[in-house]
Amino acid sequence: GSGGNTSDNGNTCPATSQNSDTCCSSNTCQKVSCSPRVLSSGTKATLTVNSFVRGGDGGGPSECDGRYHSENSLVVALSTGWYSGGSRCGRKIQINGNGLSTLATVVDECDSENGCDSEHAGQPPCANNIVDGSRAVWAALGVSENSDMYGFMDVTWQDA
């Protein structure tokens, strides 16, 4: 694209750590607009789990299409810099982890600038290196919900 948010192309944005659940009450949440540089060979990220259903922990409907998505849909939210103002909406990314890979569609932003309010289901801002995947994404990578890895897993991703 021309112009727009190019924060995911910068070299100077290190990954941030996950905000603790108490950062909202103590007002110590890290808020970042950039994400680490996207590499065509695969970008390091942390895969987290999100529910995109109505009433799920994702809060409101997905940013890209204004809709909710079933637990069986291969969908993800990306941290603010990688979401890049919606430029990846509806596009597929390849996620590699646990020795497997899967394709998932970008439908939402994991907001790393804002949080702690009702729009974000009371959740703190996202870290800036998050691929927030549905249960189906985790299943496609062979990680069951009772696995020790479930919830936070090191992965790489790239545009598909």
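Second entry:
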Amino acid sequence: MSQITAGSFIRLLRTDRTVVAVCVTTAITMMGQGIISPVLPLIARDYDVGLALVGFTVAVFGLGRLFSNLPAGFLSERYGRRVVLIVGLAILTIASVLMALIDNLVALVAFRLLSGVGAAIYTTSAMTMLADISAPANRTRYMSLQQGSILLGSGLGPAVGGFAAEIWGFHSAFYLMSVLSA
């Protein structure tokens, strides 16, 4: 069983730039999506809606991902990993910017769904790209790094969003999310 040492991590950074780029982009993108989590109850107050509807806003992101993963795989096969990966990031960025600009919950739900679609397209293509460039000897390491990047970003996002909202107001979380998705 091999261990990841500081030296092996430095070698990874030097030799596997695609892996590093994909993992860093994944962490930042997922952090951007998690940033709005702590401010969603404030939206319920501002838009005068129940928490159940705000909870639905969280759920549609996952639904967008769920229903877009399989089509994303087909698109990745047909048009290439890199193109589809970039399209996924573009959709995610556009949806994030639009969420920062809107002022009603229905539009927020729609754009949150769209951001889930973009995230699915990106993550499916990223994972497939990593599988393509890996060998049996390092495939599990690459997949683990990718999953770790998702968890790191998702875990840091709410902390960053709560901090930003406390200092600059809850709308700042949406602007920060759109910057991190770009």
